[in-house]
């Protein structure tokens, strides 16, 4: 049996988001239950990959080194469990980079790294860009209400019609492992 893989957005799914950007490890605070959800996935044998837009780098709000420190804090909270992959895109929307969601570059990198297809794999996000990239790769998108999720739902975008919506990452993981 092939190993199961899941792709998670970061800001708003794993950690609290801010319209002013998360700019330091001190500002990087996990959403309640998100770390436990990732631990549950890892204990169940899943590959857990993160794909996150980080335009704050190009905007000059924080450096790649600071982003690395945020990710070290995140991985440290997993208590010795290994996170399999973190991809980030430092670009702005207007850069039209294929690596920035809804571009599929980060997902292609995940497929190459794990020599797998993401078709039908779950992707958890809180924005339309997360939903769009999941649909572009024929994945199963899940929208969470944390982060920008409520705002995304309120948009009424028709692409959300058949997308499962959950309170948070923990609720998605509970459903996937049930």
TrEMBL record:
Names of required cofactors: Mg(2+)
Compartments reported by the entry: Cytoplasm
EC number in record: 3.1.3.-
Transmembrane segments: none
Enzyme class at the top of the EC tree: hydrolase
Keywords: Carbohydrate metabolism, Cytoplasm, Hydrolase, Metal-binding
Record has Hydrolase as a keyword: yes
Main subcellular localisation: cytoplasm
UniProt-listed NCBIfam families: HAD-SF-IIIA (TIGR01662), Histidinol-ppas (TIGR01656), PRK08942.1 (NF006506)
Subunit structure: Monomer.
Family: Belongs to the gmhB family.
Name of this protein: D,D-heptose 1,7-bisphosphate phosphatase
Source species of the chain: Thiomicrorhabdus immobilis
Lineage: Bacteria, Pseudomonadati, Pseudomonadota, Gammaproteobacteria, Thiotrichales
